[in-house]
Specification:
globular; alpha/beta; 2 domains
């Protein structure tokens, strides 16, 4: 506390004791993929070696070390770390290109020299300390051990969502496409593979869709918000599909949470927004609902760290109420919560009823939050009937 010894006016700067809650990021992706040690790397602009005979050769970038995550913010940065499209990085290169082409802006990439359960699980651990990662994919990996490892990683992190590729199969049943991978409301699975142009061969090739889908998630988050289902969206760069599936095919897959990519009037479109397991996941069957709650959880967690070690009394409870209410009001205004007013859309309770003496004696402060989420209009129904007209 300042000392005041002489009469007069004193003007001081006061730091706020309560910091506003800022929304956490939702669209940074983490990719794990195969990149051979021998990939050809591009030359560094303006850098050359000259040998004793006067021959000039370009100095090339060095491939990024295996098992170490690299932050990428553009396709050019991928090429500088892992090389341009070529046999040694083909699946990962197309996934990351599809991510940026479809609206992604930031991703972390860990390269491996072999993709299997033994190598991928330690690679997932390299993402543990990178807080901004919100989406995780191993493009093209359909093995049960790998997909369940990605799911477990996301569940453990508490703020991440897995994007999985379906099995390459001509049998359009949930069991065939999902394989033995377990259901999870922290994951979504997409099928079939998409056809893209491959600059390395000059031909059209089939690639897994997970990288492109991650870009669509990022694009939707930016344009509409994390509460908007990342569906009914075109897949940029897709020229065709491995399988053209019908509404009847989807009727057998959608309840199980198999999200289809379909050719609708010549447009390659994501036509599903369910978590893996679909109806079995109950209240968490929609991708956007699960991701909205991950966003709320992470944002409130990061934005209320100032509470720790504060005196646990009614003054603190009031500050928490104001802090969280202000944040959720902004979330409601963005269209993420259902209700004509904040009071209809959510409630925040931090008072003596949630913090009785026995709770305070444990050093805890408990806040109860309830939100009314907006669910996607998955089935749009118009009922049309004959009408005789007025006066008939």
């Amino acid at each position: 506390m300042s000392q005041y010894l002489a009469p007069g006016v004193y003007v001081e700067e006061a730091l706020p004791t309560v910091q506003p809650i800022a929304g956490a990021g939702t669209s940074t992706a983490g990719f794990i993929g195969l990149v051979a040690d021998a990939v050809v790397m591009p030359p560094q602009p303006g850098k050359f070696n000259t040998d004793a005979e006067g021959h000039v050769t370009p100095i090339r970038y060095t491939v990024a070390p295996a098992g170490v995550p690299q932050l990428l913010t553009s396709w050019e940065s991928f090429k500088n770390h892992f090389g341009d499209f070529q046999a040694g990085n083909l699946v990962l290169a197309h996934a990351v290109y599809g991510f940026f082409n479809n609206g992604g802006t930031r991703c972390w990439v860990t390269r491996l020299t072999a993709i299997n359960g033994t190598t991928v699980l330690p690679a997932l651990a390299t993402f543990d300390g990178i807080d901004e990662i919100a989406l995780v994919a191993v493009p093209g990996a359909t093995e049960e051990a790998i997909q369940e490892g990605v799911i477990d990683h996301c569940v453990k992190a508490g703020d991440r969502f897995a994007i999985l590729d379906g099995q390459v199969t001509g049998t359009f049943t949930p069991a065939a496409i999902q394989g033995a991978t377990k259901n999870s409301d922290h994951a979504a699975l997409y099928f079939p593979r998409i056809e893209v142009f491959d600059p390395a061969s000059g031909n059209r090739i089939l690639v897994p869709p997970s990288g492109h889908i991650a870009g669509i998630y990022a694009r939707t988050d930016t344009e509409r918000g994390v509460h908007k289902a990342p569906a009914n969206a075109p897949v940029r760069g897709a020229l065709g599909l491995e399988h053209r599936l019908s509404r009847a095919d989807q009727a057998g897959l959608n309840p199980a949470g198999i999200n289809l990519i379909r050719d609708l009037n010549g447009n390659i479109t994501v036509w599903g927004a369910r978590t893996l397991g679909g109806d079995a996941n109950g209240a968490w069957k929609y991708v956007n609902v699960r991701r909205l709650f991950l966003f709320l959880r992470e944002s409130i967690d990061e934005g209320t760290q100032w509470v720790v070690f504060e005196p646990n009394d009614s003054s603190l409870w009031a500050k928490i109420n104001r802090n969280v209410t202000a944040f959720l009001t902004n979330v409601w205004r963005s269209g993420a919560l259902f209700g004509n007013s904040p009071a209809e859309a959510f409630y925040v309770r931090c008072d003596a009823s949630t913090n009785p003496p026995e709770v305070r004696d444990l050093g805890q402060v408990v806040t109860e939050i309830g939100v009314s989420v907006v669910k996607p209009a998955e089935f749009v129904i118009f009922r049309v009937s004959q009408w005789a007209g007025p006066g008939q």
